[in-house]
Amino acid sequence: MRLLNVDYLRGFAAFAVLFFHTTNTVENYPTISIIRNIGEFGRLGVDIFFIISGFIIPYSMKISEYRFGSDTGIFFAKRLARVEPTYLASIIFTVLMGCLVNWYYQKELYAYSIGQILSHLFYLTNFLGYEWINPVYWTLAIEFQFYITLALIYPLLFHSIWRNILFLLSAIATLTMNELFIGTLIEYIPFFAIGVIACLLKFEALIFKRALVFLGVFFLLILIKFGLTALLFSLLTFVSLISSVNIKQFRLLRFLGLISYSIYLFHYPIVEKLVRIGKIAGYSAWSQLIVLFISIALSILVAWVVFIFIERPSLKLAGSLKYISKKR
Fold first, then answer.
1. DSSP letter string, 152-219
2. Alpha carbon distance, N-terminus to C-terminus of the chain
3. CB neighbours (10 Å) of residue 142?
């Protein structure tokens, strides 16, 4: 099941994050300010991914006729089959890249402990006081918290009264959140909620006038917590999700959407190291542009290879797992 508008959004978000890390990871490089300033907006790709998850996960559950209780275990099995193989491969790739650099320079520029690496397996790195070996991994922990929450509350989304209470409590939780919950799902609930609302509208499970009230609350929270730019990107993402307009296929953007998960997981250790090498090589405008181009191109190439050999088989495995209600 692939939705064209979702693929476009995934492709845009993945490239945005890739461009952000390529242009804003290494201090003072590139020195071309306009590129760094444009690249700074790429961090908002994460917000788009959160909204997409809020939409596509309950959408796929509805299409597959998920039933709370009997299908909960299968739901987690499907999610693990989908995300874990590529995630684990990226952990190995990141560690190997760091060890290779350490060997080349004969210095421990990248240090990893067994406890730190093991903490990644259950997305507990922040809770255990470690640092993520790849800074994009923190969002996977948020996503996994969303999976757990959604599996438990899914039936409430299609019950008018309970859904209203749920959205109200979610908004209050985000608004009154203290420092203890920074970096958890509670902080980013507004993005996921917007995606969920878009999903409910798709299935006509929510009256549009009532949806506007909830959207107003969550968009306001995004404005307060994350700023005007995040609000605008979130609004555009929501409109794209609920739009039924047939857009001409953009093959490159759809291709990026297809391999977006692999791009997201594998790009950082590549661009971070190549850009550092580029910084040593020189500061001319052309050399900087070449370094940026090579970093982006190599990241996409590696992601494509990973998709073919790891992610695509994972997708097929996840798709082969059927909910009990679908087996009958």
1. HHGGGGGSHHHHHHHHHHHHHHHHT--GGGTTSHHHHHHHHHHHHHHHHHHTT-S-HHHHHHHHHHHH
2. 20
3. 22
Side-chain-facing half-sphere of 164: CA atoms under 13 Å: 6
Which residues does the chain have with pLDDT short of 70?
Answer: 1, 245-247, 325-328
Contact 221, 234 (CB under 8 A): no
Q: What value, to the nearest 5°, has the Cα angle with vertex 250 and ends 230 and 228?
A: 10
Separation between Cα atoms, residue 113 and residue 318, nearest integer Å = 31
Q: How many CB atoms lie under 10 A from the CB of residue 209?
A: 7
Instruction: For residue 290, give the 3-state DSSP assignment.
Output: helix
Number of C-beta neighbours around residue 133 at 10 A:
23
Q: Which of 176, 184, 187, 183 is nearest to 222 (CA)?
A: 187
110: tokens are 């990248």
Whole-angstrom CA distances from 249 to 253, 254, 255, 307 are: 9, 8, 10, 21
Contact in structure between 299 and 271 (CB atoms under 8 Å): yes
**Plot region of 69 (φ>0 → left; ψ -120 to 50 → alpha; else → beta):** left
Dihedral Cα 314, 315, 319, 320, nearest 10 deg: -30
Measured over the CA atoms of residue 234, residue 235, residue 239 and residue 240, the dihedral's sign is negative
How much is the pLDDT for 246?
A: 64
pLDDT tens per residue across span 195-206? 999 999 999 999
The answer to whether 192 and 148 are in contact (CB under 8 A) is: no
Judged by DSSP in three states, 135 sits in coil
pLDDT at 325: 66
C-alpha torsion angle, residues 26, 32, 38, 39 (rounded to 10): -20
Tokens 């597959």, residue located: 64
Nearest to 110 by CA among 309, 273, 220: 273
Find out whether 205 and 158 touch, Cβ atoms under 8 Å: yes
Residue 292 near residue 23, CB atoms below 8 Å: yes
- Cβ–Cβ < 8 Å for 55, 112: no
